[in-house]
Amino acid sequence: xxxxxxxxxxxxxxxxxxxxxxxxxxxxxxxxxxxxxxxxxxxxxxxxxxxxxxxxxxxxxxxxxxxxxxxxxxxxxxxxxxxxxxxxxxxxxxxxxxxxxxxxxxxxxxxxxxxxxxxxxxxxxxxxxxxxxxxxxxxxxxxxxxxxxxxxxxxxxxxxxxxxxxxxxxxxxxxxxxxxxxxxxxxxxxxxxxxxxxxxxxxxxxxxxxxxxxxxxxxxxxxxxxxxxxxxxxxxxxxxxxxxxxxxxxxxxxxxxxxxxxxxxxxxxxxxxxxxxxxxxxxxxxxxxxxxxxxxxxxxxxxxxxxxxxxxxxxxxxxxxxxxxxxxxxxxxxxxxxxxxxxxxxxxxxxxxxxxxxxxxxxxxxxxxxxxxxxxxxxxxxxxxxxxxxxxxxxxxxxxxxxxxxxxxxxxxxxxxxxxxxxxxxxxxxxxxxxxxxxxxxxxxxxxxxxxxxxxxxxxxxxxxxxxxxxxxxxxxxxxxxxxxxxxxxxxxxxxxxxxxxxxxxxxxxx
Length: 511
Known about the structure:
Blueprint: E1 9-13, E2 19-26, E3 32-43, E4 47-48, E5 55-57, H1 74-83, E6 87-90, E7 99-100, E8 105-106, H2 128-137, E9 141-146, H3 153-166, E10 172-175, H4 182-185, H5 192-209, E11 214-221, H6 225-228, H7 240-248, E12 255-262, H8 277-287, H9 290-303, E13 308-316, H10 319-324, H11 337-353, E14 357-363, E15 374-375, E16 379-380, H12 382-394, E17 399-405, E18 417-424, E19 427-435, E20 441-444, E21 454-460, E22 482-486, E23 489-490, E24 493-496, E25 500-505
Parallel strand pairs: 1-20, 5-6, 5-14, 6-9, 9-10, 10-11, 11-12, 12-13, 13-14
Antiparallel strand pairs: 1-2, 2-3, 3-17, 4-17, 7-8, 15-16, 17-18, 18-19, 19-25, 20-24, 21-22, 21-25, 23-24
Protein backbone atom coordinates (compact mmCIF):
# COMPACT_ATOMS: atom_id res chain seq x y z
CA UNK A 1 0.00 0.00 0.00
CA UNK A 2 1.30 3.44 -0.84
CA UNK A 3 2.77 5.38 2.02
CA UNK A 4 0.63 8.17 3.43
CA UNK A 5 1.61 11.47 4.97
CA UNK A 6 2.17 11.49 8.72
CA UNK A 7 0.27 14.77 8.98
CA UNK A 8 -2.06 14.60 11.97
CA UNK A 9 -5.77 15.29 11.87
CA UNK A 10 -7.16 17.06 14.92
CA UNK A 11 -10.53 16.46 16.54
CA UNK A 12 -11.80 19.19 18.84
CA UNK A 13 -15.12 19.62 20.57
CA UNK A 14 -17.55 21.97 22.30
CA UNK A 15 -19.46 19.70 24.65
CA UNK A 16 -20.08 16.11 25.62
CA UNK A 17 -22.69 15.66 22.93
CA UNK A 18 -21.50 17.98 20.19
CA UNK A 19 -17.98 17.92 18.83
CA UNK A 20 -16.28 19.82 16.04
CA UNK A 21 -14.25 17.34 14.00
CA UNK A 22 -11.52 18.11 11.51
CA UNK A 23 -11.80 14.85 9.68
CA UNK A 24 -10.69 12.95 6.62
CA UNK A 25 -13.28 13.36 3.89
CA UNK A 26 -14.35 10.14 2.20
CA UNK A 27 -15.67 10.14 -1.35
CA UNK A 28 -18.41 7.60 -2.22
CA UNK A 29 -15.80 4.92 -2.93
CA UNK A 30 -14.26 5.61 0.50
CA UNK A 31 -10.97 6.76 -1.02
CA UNK A 32 -9.20 9.24 1.21
CA UNK A 33 -8.65 12.67 -0.33
CA UNK A 34 -6.09 15.26 0.63
CA UNK A 35 -8.74 17.76 1.64
CA UNK A 36 -10.43 17.92 5.04
CA UNK A 37 -13.90 18.92 6.11
CA UNK A 38 -15.21 20.26 9.41
CA UNK A 39 -18.41 18.80 10.84
CA UNK A 40 -20.09 18.05 14.16
CA UNK A 41 -21.17 14.82 15.73
CA UNK A 42 -23.24 13.30 18.52
CA UNK A 43 -23.23 10.31 20.81
CA UNK A 44 -26.22 8.14 20.05
CA UNK A 45 -28.52 6.92 22.80
CA UNK A 46 -26.81 4.07 24.67
CA UNK A 47 -28.48 0.68 24.36
CA UNK A 48 -28.14 -2.49 26.40
CA UNK A 49 -24.80 -4.20 25.81
CA UNK A 50 -25.04 -7.82 24.65
CA UNK A 51 -21.65 -9.18 25.69
CA UNK A 52 -22.43 -12.46 23.89
CA UNK A 53 -21.80 -10.72 20.55
CA UNK A 54 -18.07 -10.70 21.40
CA UNK A 55 -17.66 -14.49 21.61
CA UNK A 56 -15.58 -17.21 19.96
CA UNK A 57 -16.21 -20.65 18.43
CA UNK A 58 -14.07 -23.67 19.19
CA UNK A 59 -13.57 -26.44 16.63
CA UNK A 60 -11.89 -29.79 16.11
CA UNK A 61 -8.47 -28.11 15.83
CA UNK A 62 -8.65 -27.43 19.58
CA UNK A 63 -7.54 -31.05 19.97
CA UNK A 64 -4.24 -30.22 18.25
CA UNK A 65 -3.03 -28.61 21.47
CA UNK A 66 -1.04 -30.66 23.97
CA UNK A 67 -1.44 -33.97 22.12
CA UNK A 68 -5.20 -33.93 22.31
CA UNK A 69 -5.41 -32.67 25.88
CA UNK A 70 -5.85 -28.88 25.62
CA UNK A 71 -7.77 -28.93 28.90
CA UNK A 72 -4.50 -29.80 30.68
CA UNK A 73 -2.37 -27.14 28.96
CA UNK A 74 -1.92 -24.30 31.47
CA UNK A 75 -0.66 -21.84 28.84
CA UNK A 76 -3.70 -22.45 26.62
CA UNK A 77 -6.10 -22.22 29.56
CA UNK A 78 -4.50 -18.91 30.53
CA UNK A 79 -5.19 -17.61 27.02
CA UNK A 80 -8.81 -18.69 27.40
CA UNK A 81 -8.91 -16.84 30.73
CA UNK A 82 -7.59 -13.64 29.15
CA UNK A 83 -10.09 -13.83 26.30
CA UNK A 84 -13.02 -14.47 28.66
CA UNK A 85 -15.31 -15.21 25.73
CA UNK A 86 -18.88 -14.71 27.03
CA UNK A 87 -20.00 -17.76 25.03
CA UNK A 88 -17.83 -20.61 23.74
CA UNK A 89 -19.26 -22.78 20.98
CA UNK A 90 -18.57 -26.50 21.53
CA UNK A 91 -17.48 -28.54 19.64
CA UNK A 92 -18.38 -26.44 16.59
CA UNK A 93 -18.18 -26.81 12.83
CA UNK A 94 -18.91 -29.91 10.75
CA UNK A 95 -17.67 -31.97 13.67
CA UNK A 96 -21.04 -31.32 15.31
CA UNK A 97 -23.02 -33.35 12.78
CA UNK A 98 -21.13 -36.52 13.68
CA UNK A 99 -20.37 -35.84 17.32
CA UNK A 100 -21.15 -38.33 20.07
CA UNK A 101 -21.12 -36.74 23.52
CA UNK A 102 -21.16 -40.18 25.17
CA UNK A 103 -17.78 -41.15 23.70
CA UNK A 104 -16.33 -37.69 23.08
CA UNK A 105 -15.58 -38.62 19.45
CA UNK A 106 -17.34 -38.66 16.09
CA UNK A 107 -19.85 -41.41 15.40
CA UNK A 108 -20.51 -43.64 12.39
CA UNK A 109 -18.50 -44.42 9.28
CA UNK A 110 -19.76 -41.60 7.08
CA UNK A 111 -18.29 -38.28 8.18
CA UNK A 112 -19.72 -35.90 5.60
CA UNK A 113 -17.05 -33.27 4.92
CA UNK A 114 -14.77 -34.52 7.67
CA UNK A 115 -11.63 -36.20 6.42
CA UNK A 116 -10.11 -38.76 8.77
CA UNK A 117 -6.75 -38.69 6.99
CA UNK A 118 -6.50 -34.92 7.32
CA UNK A 119 -7.82 -34.65 10.85
CA UNK A 120 -6.00 -37.41 12.66
CA UNK A 121 -7.11 -35.97 15.99
CA UNK A 122 -10.81 -36.56 15.25
CA UNK A 123 -10.92 -39.78 17.25
CA UNK A 124 -9.00 -38.40 20.23
CA UNK A 125 -11.70 -38.44 22.92
CA UNK A 126 -12.75 -35.18 24.57
CA UNK A 127 -15.58 -35.52 27.03
CA UNK A 128 -18.12 -32.90 28.02
CA UNK A 129 -16.09 -32.46 31.20
CA UNK A 130 -12.96 -31.73 29.14
CA UNK A 131 -14.74 -29.15 26.98
CA UNK A 132 -16.35 -27.63 30.06
CA UNK A 133 -12.92 -27.25 31.68
CA UNK A 134 -11.86 -25.08 28.73
CA UNK A 135 -15.03 -23.00 28.87
CA UNK A 136 -14.75 -22.57 32.63
CA UNK A 137 -11.21 -21.20 32.30
CA UNK A 138 -12.70 -18.16 30.58
CA UNK A 139 -15.89 -18.12 32.64
CA UNK A 140 -17.66 -18.78 29.33
CA UNK A 141 -21.17 -20.10 28.86
CA UNK A 142 -21.00 -23.20 26.63
CA UNK A 143 -22.99 -23.26 23.43
CA UNK A 144 -23.43 -27.03 23.28
CA UNK A 145 -23.64 -28.51 19.79
CA UNK A 146 -26.08 -31.40 19.42
CA UNK A 147 -25.82 -34.02 16.68
CA UNK A 148 -29.49 -34.52 15.84
CA UNK A 149 -28.98 -36.51 12.62
CA UNK A 150 -26.71 -39.46 13.41
CA UNK A 151 -27.16 -39.72 17.18
CA UNK A 152 -30.40 -41.12 18.63
CA UNK A 153 -32.54 -39.07 20.99
CA UNK A 154 -31.74 -41.55 23.76
CA UNK A 155 -28.05 -40.56 23.56
CA UNK A 156 -28.96 -36.89 23.75
CA UNK A 157 -31.06 -37.55 26.85
CA UNK A 158 -28.18 -39.33 28.60
CA UNK A 159 -25.91 -36.39 27.75
CA UNK A 160 -28.43 -33.84 29.02
CA UNK A 161 -28.85 -35.83 32.24
CA UNK A 162 -25.05 -35.68 32.63
CA UNK A 163 -25.08 -31.89 32.27
CA UNK A 164 -27.90 -31.68 34.80
CA UNK A 165 -26.27 -33.92 37.40
CA UNK A 166 -22.89 -32.20 36.96
CA UNK A 167 -24.52 -28.78 37.28
CA UNK A 168 -22.83 -27.60 34.10
CA UNK A 169 -24.16 -24.44 32.53
CA UNK A 170 -26.70 -25.34 29.87
CA UNK A 171 -28.16 -22.06 28.69
CA UNK A 172 -27.55 -22.51 24.94
CA UNK A 173 -27.79 -25.44 22.52
CA UNK A 174 -27.30 -25.58 18.75
CA UNK A 175 -29.15 -28.32 16.87
CA UNK A 176 -26.83 -29.24 14.00
CA UNK A 177 -24.42 -27.39 11.73
CA UNK A 178 -25.17 -26.11 8.18
CA UNK A 179 -27.52 -28.98 7.44
CA UNK A 180 -29.06 -26.95 4.60
CA UNK A 181 -26.03 -27.99 2.51
CA UNK A 182 -27.66 -31.23 1.42
CA UNK A 183 -24.82 -32.16 -0.93
CA UNK A 184 -22.63 -32.68 2.14
CA UNK A 185 -25.18 -34.24 4.46
CA UNK A 186 -27.48 -36.17 2.13
CA UNK A 187 -26.55 -39.36 3.96
CA UNK A 188 -28.15 -37.91 7.09
CA UNK A 189 -30.93 -35.59 6.01
CA UNK A 190 -33.05 -34.91 2.91
CA UNK A 191 -34.99 -31.68 3.51
CA UNK A 192 -36.24 -29.26 6.15
CA UNK A 193 -39.21 -31.46 7.07
CA UNK A 194 -36.81 -34.33 7.73
CA UNK A 195 -34.63 -32.03 9.84
CA UNK A 196 -37.52 -30.59 11.86
CA UNK A 197 -38.88 -34.04 12.67
CA UNK A 198 -35.51 -35.04 14.15
CA UNK A 199 -34.75 -31.70 15.79
CA UNK A 200 -38.12 -31.45 17.54
CA UNK A 201 -37.48 -34.76 19.31
CA UNK A 202 -34.04 -33.69 20.56
CA UNK A 203 -35.39 -30.25 21.51
CA UNK A 204 -38.13 -31.83 23.62
CA UNK A 205 -35.57 -33.82 25.61
CA UNK A 206 -33.39 -30.76 26.21
CA UNK A 207 -36.35 -28.63 27.32
CA UNK A 208 -37.52 -31.42 29.61
CA UNK A 209 -34.42 -31.02 31.78
CA UNK A 210 -33.62 -27.36 31.04
CA UNK A 211 -36.95 -25.65 30.30
CA UNK A 212 -35.40 -22.18 30.22
CA UNK A 213 -32.60 -23.03 27.80
CA UNK A 214 -32.34 -21.43 24.33
CA UNK A 215 -32.16 -23.54 21.17
CA UNK A 216 -30.71 -22.45 17.83
CA UNK A 217 -31.36 -24.14 14.48
CA UNK A 218 -29.28 -23.94 11.26
CA UNK A 219 -31.05 -21.50 8.95
CA UNK A 220 -28.72 -19.99 6.33
CA UNK A 221 -25.33 -18.67 5.29
CA UNK A 222 -24.93 -14.97 4.49
CA UNK A 223 -25.15 -15.32 0.69
CA UNK A 224 -28.52 -17.08 0.95
CA UNK A 225 -30.43 -13.90 1.84
CA UNK A 226 -31.05 -13.39 -1.88
CA UNK A 227 -32.39 -16.93 -2.14
CA UNK A 228 -34.96 -16.16 0.54
CA UNK A 229 -36.28 -13.30 -1.57
CA UNK A 230 -36.92 -15.68 -4.46
CA UNK A 231 -40.30 -17.29 -4.92
CA UNK A 232 -39.57 -20.51 -6.80
CA UNK A 233 -40.82 -23.66 -5.12
CA UNK A 234 -39.22 -26.46 -7.13
CA UNK A 235 -38.03 -29.51 -5.21
CA UNK A 236 -34.36 -29.38 -6.14
CA UNK A 237 -32.38 -30.78 -3.21
CA UNK A 238 -30.27 -27.61 -3.15
CA UNK A 239 -33.30 -25.34 -2.93
CA UNK A 240 -32.40 -23.14 0.01
CA UNK A 241 -35.67 -21.22 -0.28
CA UNK A 242 -37.61 -24.35 0.67
CA UNK A 243 -35.27 -24.99 3.59
CA UNK A 244 -35.68 -21.48 5.00
CA UNK A 245 -39.45 -21.38 4.58
CA UNK A 246 -39.71 -24.82 6.17
CA UNK A 247 -37.67 -23.80 9.21
CA UNK A 248 -39.45 -20.45 9.61
CA UNK A 249 -42.77 -22.29 9.79
CA UNK A 250 -41.72 -24.04 13.02
CA UNK A 251 -41.67 -22.82 16.63
CA UNK A 252 -39.75 -25.41 18.67
CA UNK A 253 -36.57 -23.27 18.71
CA UNK A 254 -35.52 -19.84 20.00
CA UNK A 255 -32.99 -18.60 17.43
CA UNK A 256 -32.13 -18.84 13.75
CA UNK A 257 -28.46 -19.68 13.26
CA UNK A 258 -26.64 -17.80 10.49
CA UNK A 259 -23.08 -18.28 9.24
CA UNK A 260 -21.50 -15.13 7.85
CA UNK A 261 -18.27 -15.41 5.86
CA UNK A 262 -16.88 -12.33 4.11
CA UNK A 263 -15.23 -13.92 1.09
CA UNK A 264 -13.75 -11.80 -1.73
CA UNK A 265 -16.91 -12.46 -3.74
CA UNK A 266 -18.98 -11.05 -0.88
CA UNK A 267 -17.12 -7.75 -0.78
CA UNK A 268 -16.93 -7.48 -4.55
CA UNK A 269 -13.51 -8.80 -5.60
CA UNK A 270 -13.65 -11.40 -8.35
CA UNK A 271 -9.97 -11.32 -9.29
CA UNK A 272 -7.40 -9.91 -6.88
CA UNK A 273 -5.02 -9.05 -9.67
CA UNK A 274 -7.50 -6.46 -10.96
CA UNK A 275 -7.52 -4.45 -7.71
CA UNK A 276 -5.03 -2.47 -5.70
CA UNK A 277 -4.83 -3.05 -1.97
CA UNK A 278 -6.41 0.38 -1.45
CA UNK A 279 -9.39 -0.56 -3.60
CA UNK A 280 -9.78 -3.82 -1.70
CA UNK A 281 -9.63 -1.91 1.59
CA UNK A 282 -12.45 0.38 0.47
CA UNK A 283 -14.65 -2.57 -0.49
CA UNK A 284 -13.93 -4.44 2.74
CA UNK A 285 -14.66 -1.39 4.91
CA UNK A 286 -17.98 -0.85 3.18
CA UNK A 287 -18.92 -4.52 3.55
CA UNK A 288 -18.81 -4.36 7.36
CA UNK A 289 -20.77 -1.11 7.57
CA UNK A 290 -24.16 -1.29 9.22
CA UNK A 291 -26.02 -0.65 5.96
CA UNK A 292 -24.57 -3.77 4.33
CA UNK A 293 -24.90 -5.90 7.47
CA UNK A 294 -28.53 -4.94 7.93
CA UNK A 295 -29.37 -5.51 4.26
CA UNK A 296 -28.21 -9.09 4.66
CA UNK A 297 -29.24 -10.03 8.17
CA UNK A 298 -32.59 -8.24 8.30
CA UNK A 299 -33.87 -10.54 5.55
CA UNK A 300 -33.30 -13.50 7.85
CA UNK A 301 -34.67 -11.63 10.86
CA UNK A 302 -37.92 -10.80 9.08
CA UNK A 303 -38.39 -14.48 8.25
CA UNK A 304 -39.14 -15.02 11.94
CA UNK A 305 -39.13 -11.63 13.73
CA UNK A 306 -40.05 -13.08 17.12
CA UNK A 307 -36.86 -15.18 17.15
CA UNK A 308 -33.29 -14.05 17.76
CA UNK A 309 -30.40 -14.43 15.32
CA UNK A 310 -27.26 -16.29 16.35
CA UNK A 311 -24.20 -15.95 14.13
CA UNK A 312 -22.23 -18.97 15.30
CA UNK A 313 -19.58 -18.81 12.58
CA UNK A 314 -18.23 -15.66 10.95
CA UNK A 315 -14.86 -14.61 9.58
CA UNK A 316 -13.06 -12.42 7.06
CA UNK A 317 -11.21 -14.08 4.15
CA UNK A 318 -11.77 -17.68 5.25
CA UNK A 319 -9.99 -20.54 3.52
CA UNK A 320 -13.11 -21.82 1.71
CA UNK A 321 -12.85 -19.27 -1.10
CA UNK A 322 -9.18 -19.87 -1.75
CA UNK A 323 -9.62 -23.63 -1.88
CA UNK A 324 -12.04 -23.10 -4.76
CA UNK A 325 -9.80 -20.47 -6.42
CA UNK A 326 -6.23 -21.78 -6.00
CA UNK A 327 -4.90 -19.23 -8.47
CA UNK A 328 -5.81 -16.55 -5.91
CA UNK A 329 -4.08 -18.22 -2.96
CA UNK A 330 -1.09 -15.90 -3.11
CA UNK A 331 -3.40 -13.04 -2.12
CA UNK A 332 -4.70 -14.70 1.03
CA UNK A 333 -2.43 -12.92 3.45
CA UNK A 334 -3.29 -14.06 6.95
CA UNK A 335 -4.12 -12.04 10.04
CA UNK A 336 -3.71 -8.58 8.52
CA UNK A 337 -4.52 -5.27 10.18
CA UNK A 338 -7.35 -4.98 7.67
CA UNK A 339 -8.84 -8.25 8.93
CA UNK A 340 -8.60 -7.00 12.53
CA UNK A 341 -10.35 -3.73 11.62
CA UNK A 342 -13.03 -5.65 9.73
CA UNK A 343 -13.61 -7.93 12.73
CA UNK A 344 -13.82 -4.98 15.11
CA UNK A 345 -16.26 -3.00 12.96
CA UNK A 346 -18.39 -6.09 12.30
CA UNK A 347 -18.80 -6.79 16.02
CA UNK A 348 -19.28 -3.19 17.13
CA UNK A 349 -21.81 -2.32 14.44
CA UNK A 350 -23.74 -5.51 15.18
CA UNK A 351 -23.65 -4.84 18.93
CA UNK A 352 -25.15 -1.37 18.52
CA UNK A 353 -27.35 -1.50 15.42
CA UNK A 354 -28.65 -5.07 15.17
CA UNK A 355 -30.39 -5.85 18.48
CA UNK A 356 -31.97 -8.99 17.06
CA UNK A 357 -28.51 -10.61 16.94
CA UNK A 358 -28.02 -11.97 20.46
CA UNK A 359 -24.97 -14.25 20.03
CA UNK A 360 -21.94 -14.15 17.72
CA UNK A 361 -19.10 -16.67 17.97
CA UNK A 362 -16.17 -15.77 15.73
CA UNK A 363 -14.54 -18.53 13.74
CA UNK A 364 -12.21 -19.83 15.15
CA UNK A 365 -10.27 -20.48 18.36
CA UNK A 366 -7.30 -22.55 17.20
CA UNK A 367 -4.98 -23.17 14.23
CA UNK A 368 -6.89 -22.22 11.07
CA UNK A 369 -4.23 -19.83 9.70
CA UNK A 370 -6.34 -17.02 8.26
CA UNK A 371 -8.78 -16.68 11.14
CA UNK A 372 -7.44 -18.34 14.32
CA UNK A 373 -7.13 -16.57 17.65
CA UNK A 374 -4.28 -18.88 18.66
CA UNK A 375 -1.86 -20.94 16.58
CA UNK A 376 0.37 -23.63 18.01
CA UNK A 377 3.34 -22.60 15.85
CA UNK A 378 3.42 -18.87 16.67
CA UNK A 379 1.11 -18.43 19.67
CA UNK A 380 -1.40 -15.59 19.81
CA UNK A 381 -2.41 -13.61 16.71
CA UNK A 382 -3.64 -10.10 15.97
CA UNK A 383 -7.15 -11.52 16.32
CA UNK A 384 -6.31 -12.49 19.90
CA UNK A 385 -5.11 -8.94 20.58
CA UNK A 386 -8.39 -7.57 19.22
CA UNK A 387 -10.54 -9.79 21.43
CA UNK A 388 -8.34 -9.03 24.43
CA UNK A 389 -8.71 -5.30 23.82
CA UNK A 390 -12.48 -5.50 23.38
CA UNK A 391 -12.79 -7.62 26.51
CA UNK A 392 -11.00 -4.85 28.45
CA UNK A 393 -13.16 -2.17 26.82
CA UNK A 394 -16.49 -3.72 27.78
CA UNK A 395 -15.48 -5.06 31.21
CA UNK A 396 -18.48 -4.77 33.57
CA UNK A 397 -20.19 -2.30 31.22
CA UNK A 398 -23.93 -2.41 30.65
CA UNK A 399 -24.56 -0.16 27.62
CA UNK A 400 -22.91 0.76 24.32
CA UNK A 401 -23.14 3.86 22.13
CA UNK A 402 -21.83 5.04 18.77
CA UNK A 403 -20.46 8.49 18.01
CA UNK A 404 -21.95 9.71 14.73
CA UNK A 405 -20.20 12.46 12.78
CA UNK A 406 -22.44 15.00 11.05
CA UNK A 407 -23.77 16.17 8.70
CA UNK A 408 -24.78 13.38 6.34
CA UNK A 409 -22.59 10.33 6.82
CA UNK A 410 -24.73 7.23 7.27
CA UNK A 411 -24.47 5.51 10.68
CA UNK A 412 -21.74 2.92 10.67
CA UNK A 413 -20.81 3.36 7.02
CA UNK A 414 -19.16 6.73 6.38
CA UNK A 415 -15.69 8.05 6.92
CA UNK A 416 -12.40 6.49 7.82
CA UNK A 417 -12.86 6.47 11.59
CA UNK A 418 -15.40 4.98 14.00
CA UNK A 419 -15.84 5.64 17.74
CA UNK A 420 -17.88 3.38 20.01
CA UNK A 421 -18.34 3.99 23.72
CA UNK A 422 -18.95 1.53 26.57
CA UNK A 423 -20.83 2.77 29.63
CA UNK A 424 -21.21 1.73 33.26
CA UNK A 425 -24.41 3.05 34.80
CA UNK A 426 -24.65 5.92 32.29
CA UNK A 427 -21.00 6.89 32.75
CA UNK A 428 -18.56 6.54 29.86
CA UNK A 429 -16.05 3.89 30.89
CA UNK A 430 -14.11 3.35 27.66
CA UNK A 431 -14.06 4.19 23.97
CA UNK A 432 -12.82 2.15 21.02
CA UNK A 433 -11.53 4.11 18.04
CA UNK A 434 -11.13 2.43 14.64
CA UNK A 435 -8.84 4.30 12.25
CA UNK A 436 -8.57 2.80 8.77
CA UNK A 437 -6.73 5.81 7.34
CA UNK A 438 -2.99 6.15 6.85
CA UNK A 439 -2.93 9.33 8.95
CA UNK A 440 -2.51 9.91 12.65
CA UNK A 441 -5.45 11.54 14.40
CA UNK A 442 -5.02 13.97 17.27
CA UNK A 443 -7.95 13.76 19.68
CA UNK A 444 -8.60 16.78 21.87
CA UNK A 445 -12.36 16.38 22.22
CA UNK A 446 -14.91 17.34 24.81
CA UNK A 447 -16.85 14.37 23.50
CA UNK A 448 -14.95 12.41 26.15
CA UNK A 449 -16.01 13.60 29.61
CA UNK A 450 -13.41 13.29 32.31
CA UNK A 451 -9.74 12.56 32.28
CA UNK A 452 -8.27 9.81 30.11
CA UNK A 453 -6.68 7.34 32.49
CA UNK A 454 -4.93 5.15 29.94
CA UNK A 455 -4.90 4.15 26.29
CA UNK A 456 -3.55 1.28 24.23
CA UNK A 457 -3.51 0.57 20.53
CA UNK A 458 -3.03 -2.18 17.97
CA UNK A 459 -1.61 -0.68 14.78
CA UNK A 460 0.49 -1.46 11.72
CA UNK A 461 2.37 0.26 8.91
CA UNK A 462 0.19 -1.47 6.32
CA UNK A 463 -3.34 -2.80 6.13
CA UNK A 464 -2.38 -5.14 3.30
CA UNK A 465 0.81 -5.64 1.32
CA UNK A 466 1.11 -3.57 -1.84
CA UNK A 467 0.49 -5.93 -4.76
CA UNK A 468 2.70 -3.83 -7.03
CA UNK A 469 5.66 -3.36 -4.69
CA UNK A 470 8.49 -5.55 -5.98
CA UNK A 471 10.31 -5.20 -2.65
CA UNK A 472 7.58 -7.12 -0.83
CA UNK A 473 8.05 -10.88 -0.47
CA UNK A 474 5.63 -13.24 -2.23
CA UNK A 475 2.19 -12.60 -0.82
CA UNK A 476 1.76 -16.08 0.58
CA UNK A 477 4.91 -15.46 2.64
CA UNK A 478 3.89 -11.98 3.79
CA UNK A 479 3.58 -11.89 7.56
CA UNK A 480 1.60 -9.26 9.47
CA UNK A 481 3.68 -6.73 11.37
CA UNK A 482 1.40 -5.27 13.98
CA UNK A 483 2.35 -3.45 17.17
CA UNK A 484 0.54 -3.46 20.52
CA UNK A 485 1.51 -0.55 22.71
CA UNK A 486 0.36 1.76 25.45
CA UNK A 487 -0.18 5.33 24.28
CA UNK A 488 0.96 8.53 25.96
CA UNK A 489 -1.95 10.66 27.12
CA UNK A 490 -2.09 14.18 28.48
CA UNK A 491 -5.39 15.14 30.07
CA UNK A 492 -7.86 14.70 27.24
CA UNK A 493 -5.33 14.75 24.42
CA UNK A 494 -4.24 11.60 22.64
CA UNK A 495 -2.69 10.72 19.28
CA UNK A 496 -4.43 7.84 17.49
CA UNK A 497 -1.99 5.87 15.29
CA UNK A 498 -2.68 5.20 11.63
CA UNK A 499 -4.26 1.86 10.69
CA UNK A 500 -5.24 1.15 14.26
CA UNK A 501 -7.70 -0.06 16.85
CA UNK A 502 -7.36 2.04 20.00
CA UNK A 503 -8.86 1.60 23.44
CA UNK A 504 -9.24 4.75 25.53
CA UNK A 505 -9.97 4.00 29.17
CA UNK A 506 -11.64 6.52 31.45
CA UNK A 507 -12.37 4.15 34.30
CA UNK A 508 -14.26 4.74 37.50
CA UNK A 509 -13.27 6.84 40.47
CA UNK A 510 -12.27 3.68 42.29
CA UNK A 511 -10.18 2.29 39.40
